[in-house]
Amino acid sequence: MSKLIRGGRVLDPASGLDELHDVLIEGRMIHSVSPPGSLEAKPDSSLTIIEADGLWVVPGLIDLHTHLREPGEEYKETILTGSQAAAAGGFTAICCMPNTKPVNDNSAVTDLILRRAMEADLVRVFPVGAISQGQKGEMLAEYAELKEAGVVAVSDDGRAVVNSQLMRRALEYARIFDLPVISHAEDRDLAGDGVMHEGLVSTRLGLREIPGVAEDIMVFRDCSLAALTGGRLHIAHLSSAGAVELVRQFKARGVQVTAEATPHHFTLTDEALESFDTNLKVNPPIRSSSDLAAIHQGLADGTIDAIATDHAPHSTIEKDVEFDYAAFGMIGLETALPLTLRLVDQGLLSPLEAIAKLTRNPARIIGVDLGRLAPGLPADVTLIDPQREITVDVKQFRSKSKNSPFHGWHLKGKAVMVLRDGNVIFRDEP
Amino acid sequence: MQFRKKDLLGIKHLEPEEIDLVLETAEIFKEISTRPIKKVPTLRGRTVVHLFYEPSTRTRTSFEIAAKRLSADTFNISASTSSIVKGETLIDTAKNLEAMNPDVIVLRHSAAGAPHMLARHVKASVINAGDGMHEHPTQALLDLFTIRDKKGAISGQTIAIIGDIAHSRVARSNIWALTKMGARVLVAGPTTMIPKDLDQLGVKVFYRPEDVIPEADVIMMLRIQLERQDQMLLPSLREYSRVFGLDEKKLSSAKPEVLIMHPGPINRGVEISPAVADGPYSVILDQVNNGVAVRMALLYLLIGGEKDE
After folding, report:
1. Cβ neighbours of residue B249 closer than 8 Å, sequence gap 6 or more
2. Which residues pair with A210 in a beta bridge?
3. Partners of residue A56 on adjacent β-strands
4. What distances in angstroms separate CA A280 from CA A14, A76, B138, B304, one per listed residue?
5. Predicted TM-score (pTM) of this structure
6. B134 interfaces chain A, CB cutoff of 8 Å
7. What percentage of residues in chain A have a pLDDT greater than 90?
8. Option in B12, B111, B201 nearest A323 (CB)
9. Rounded CA separation A12/A381 (Å)
10. Of the candidates A5, A11, A14, the residue with the CA atom closest to the CA atom of residue A368
11. Interface pTM (ipTM) of the complex?
């Protein structure tokens, strides 16, 4: 049961390797990563050769921020369909947010998620537990139980933690279990009932606005609390220029803070909302071109560690309505890779840097030894055709929901084969 | 020149020539309303549906009179009488209406962009009769018509828009319309009700009415929503009225030929004093009168054109 991935350009951010190499997989593990030809195995019937000429061979992609909707909203997505979408997008591991129904604030829900993920037997699913019981922002959830059940982080994602004392206690208490606290940074009073970024476009459209400072204020608070407590803070879906600068400053001070940005926040600006396309209604909102430039800068200089999708499936029931009434969120698992590769094409990130933000860096943030290609590690490997031209077609998506504003976009780059634990979980059938 | 658009969703996407065409056409239709028999057969056999998700007396009546004077069949659906209250979505309502083959749907809705969504789902022409805080294009057109009627031209006039700009679709549509037609637009309102980057729409932004009144050829007062003080936008209506309300004292610094406009319904004694509303400079009722002619013109341009030959 061996596989030899031959002739590909191996990109392994952890070791800095960016060369034509072969990867030999024995069973579930990576056996070796070596210069081309050196692994010429003896003719052996159990060896499968995977030709990777012209392809990138990278560690399996890891998404820090997915909403799988199960339990509770299976009409939008299930753990199975979300896992299928993830695999098709090149991912071998995803972290699922706790805002399910019921909330993942106890081991029963975590167990259910892990059991369904095991039945799906596609990508690794790492549950994120709630910061507070019921995500109500009042009392801490039971992190010991959650950690034991398998959560890799805690977050009240979707609902900012209003109470600063609770956030402080969460950062303190999570330290015992070495869990990062993921912050959905939003001042809920300032955001109010806003539906889009505050700026010239909201002024033109007459849509209620969410100012960038609603994010900045909370990022400042949470970074300050991380400094105070020594807790490990991760800022989800960074979107405002001010917040990028704050993370940069706190990192420079040595505070344990990491951050992610989503493909939609590094690709789109609020000008796109002139269409009133409800698929563009997300939280935090798509911001201005100067915010976009700041996100790009943050990605390039390492302020932003990871690229995460914030894959948020909604059905037509939530989205085929007036903009004001539409739910926040867009899906992203099946477009994240080509949108990230645009940053490489634009010269903003090197291929290694881009891949690091989808593999090694997210693995570090959740404290798992994945996201690198090294002997003895699980063989989670993604083969990417960086030149493949695609036209995004939501009808082809594995995800149960189709709420993507990128439908019809012409992009470049596609995962053509994805292996988890040495098994092929996705193969592109042209 | 022909009006080529299927729908009238906003002023923003209109060309100045299209605006001119509407105003010229309205000029012709205005005469009909002065006849003893106020009806022409222009739109006989055509169906106009008025779909109102927000309460409205003036706008809906104006549209209905306009359609009836053109002999169209009209139907009114309002939030209180329809399946809207039963939870039907706008798209489902649209599909059901579409199945009955209306020619025009006039939509008033509290959500910005609702007419745009409707227009994508129906073959009928959609007229935006006000969508949230976004646009109210027929109001802006009738305001242009009134200014042109009274002043002879729009270009070169200085228009002061005073009040709650942020929440006003009338202000947004008028800013597009007036700047496109070559007017100079000044706005004045409380800082809490001036939306971000407003100056980038080509207007000059002030706060105190006193700063704009002396220069204005036309003063447009905006309606203040009475609940704004609960949203921390105002300390009280009393204070708003004192600082931003138009009374005779503030008006004393205005030009002698100034026009006072208001889209209605007015809050007497709040944004405008009774003496000013009923005074010699007020053209508020002319606006209402012109609204019928402008809406007749729009209905004709959208669906009546080819039957005219």
Report:
1. none
2. A197
3. A9, A384
4. 34, 17, 28, 37
5. 0.95
6. yes
7. 96
8. B111
9. 10
10. A14
11. 0.93
